[in-house]
Amino acid sequence: MNSQFKNYNDKTRLLLKRRNFKEALSYITHCIEREPNPTMELFELRVIAFEYLKKYDEAQTDAKRMIHLNNKSAKGYLRLGKLQQLSNQDGMADQTYALGLANVHKLDPLLPVLRKASEQLARRLQLSRPVMNLFARFPKEIIIKIFDNLDFKTVVRCMQVSRLWSKSIKKEPAFFRRLDFTYAKHGSVMNRDKNVMCIARYSAYAKNEIQSVIGVEKLGILTPSKALLRCVPSLTEWQTISEIKVPQLDKLHLIWTPFSNLQFLHCNTPVTFSTAARILHSCPKLVELTFKSLIPDLLFDSMEWKDTATFQSPTFSLKQLVFLRDQKFPLHETETEFLRQILQNSPSLETLTVTYQNNLSGLLQQAPCKLKKLSVFDDSHNPSPKKLFISSSVECLTVEPGLPNLAISSPYDIQSAEGDIELRELLLNLYVRLSQDIVTKTTNFLEKCRHLRSLILKDAVALNDQLAQIISFFPDLQVLDLSDNISVDDKFATVLGTMCPQIKQLNLSGCPSLTGRGLLSLVKTLTQLEKVSILHCDLVSKETISFVRNKGIKVYTSTYTSVPVNGTKRLKLI
């Protein structure tokens, strides 16, 4: 019988392969009639022939015969369920799959296939079920309030729930004020930019309601999506997410004239100085401008920003500027002139984040703006002292290395105007090998900052002898960070609690000399303490930590014992 069935099977398959469906059906029917006890395999061949001829009712009859002959096999249920789906009988197919899962033997090799087919059908049935019309059941004000709290990705998914929801969402342009493509095909920047093509659809719904676009990478290249956004006068915010590799950097400045109403531009994509100049010229209403990676033009002597009318306008409207250049390229004097022109023409500038340059101190002294926040990032490797001037209006000063894992490679001589400084927040990364002259100047500078509310000192090894004296300058201090300092011990903790009784947040992580006695003295004297961080303070016992937490104070500790780390740049410098 096996050899005979093999002959039946081979000839039927050959006829089907040659697309002789009627001949194959006639042949396999003749074979079934010849056999006194036709098997399930023969009926399966005829089911295949009926399916090719799209005779689904006759095929279902043979599939049911297959189940009758062997209800422990998954073949019959798979064939019958597929035929019922082809006949638009999804409900009956779901019942067939459920019956098969209940009857098929657990060792049947096709059982996983049957289970997967059942799950796919159930998922499709769930998506095709009628969806409650929220837009007709709830008032419009409530629906708008709900959608205002959803991100753009969720709004797009809601459009895919049903055709009814999609039509209702399209009628409310307020849902498309913020187009966020951050999560669009996160594997590739180029794919993300292709996904931005759906702006064409959404902007058609939103008309002139689009205010913010996040995730459009190609700043200067003319794309269809950008050409469409040129016709949206309500656009005020543009943000790129990640860096891209542009083969021709000198062609990044092609179009910026359309975005005349842009107010917020956050650019994480490398751009040339010529592009930056054209952006400033084309977007006179900019309030916040971020350049995370400025690179020089391909030819220094042909910087095109000098030939434009960028700086002929009397003033810019900038209030916040991030001006970070890529330190891989050498500094050119034209770049310094570029920054000077921006500062001279921005009288309303309040926040400045800039990469350190040799003449930065002179630029800050000449600038007419009254800065309130100044952040300086240092990527250079020049060990000579660097001067930094801050005006009396600065309330927040930050001096940090270009990368979090690096240390400042040179000392800073911070200069200021006569009298006390109005600083409220200070984050200072110090050079670990400070000379006695720089230590004295730094101490004198800190003495002028008597109004400090937040003080963060990193790598303050050189100031260990003067640390108690420095802390006495700030009686109104509320936030203090002295992490990674071996001189912070129980005696210093007692002095700290007496000198700064208003501290609310304290970070003493990485201070191996601190014990539980010192922490308890701090808790007793600092009555307003809310948070304390003591990571890698192995001498503080668990009982002390539990006692402090019972006082209602948040304590941050490490879950493992700190071990010495060898070979890091910072430890080598120390």
Automatic annotation (TrEMBL):
<dbReference type="GO" id="GO:1903464">
    <property type="term" value="P:negative regulation of mitotic cell cycle DNA replication"/>
</dbReference>
<dbReference type="Pfam" id="PF12937">
    <property type="entry name" value="F-box-like"/>
</dbReference>
<protein>
    <submittedName>
        <fullName>F-box protein Pof3</fullName>
    </submittedName>
</protein>
<dbReference type="InterPro" id="IPR036047">
    <property type="entry name" value="F-box-like_dom_sf"/>
</dbReference>
<dbReference type="InterPro" id="IPR032675">
    <property type="entry name" value="LRR_dom_sf"/>
</dbReference>
<dbReference type="GO" id="GO:0000723">
    <property type="term" value="P:telomere maintenance"/>
</dbReference>
<dbReference type="InterPro" id="IPR011990">
    <property type="entry name" value="TPR-like_helical_dom_sf"/>
</dbReference>
<dbReference type="GO" id="GO:0007535">
    <property type="term" value="P:donor selection"/>
</dbReference>
<dbReference type="InterPro" id="IPR006553">
    <property type="entry name" value="Leu-rich_rpt_Cys-con_subtyp"/>
</dbReference>
<dbReference type="GO" id="GO:1990756">
    <property type="term" value="F:ubiquitin-like ligase-substrate adaptor activity"/>
</dbReference>
<feature type="domain" description="F-box">
    <location>
        <begin position="132"/>
        <end position="179"/>
    </location>
</feature>
<dbReference type="GO" id="GO:0031146">
    <property type="term" value="P:SCF-dependent proteasomal ubiquitin-dependent protein catabolic process"/>
</dbReference>
<dbReference type="InterPro" id="IPR001810">
    <property type="entry name" value="F-box_dom"/>
</dbReference>
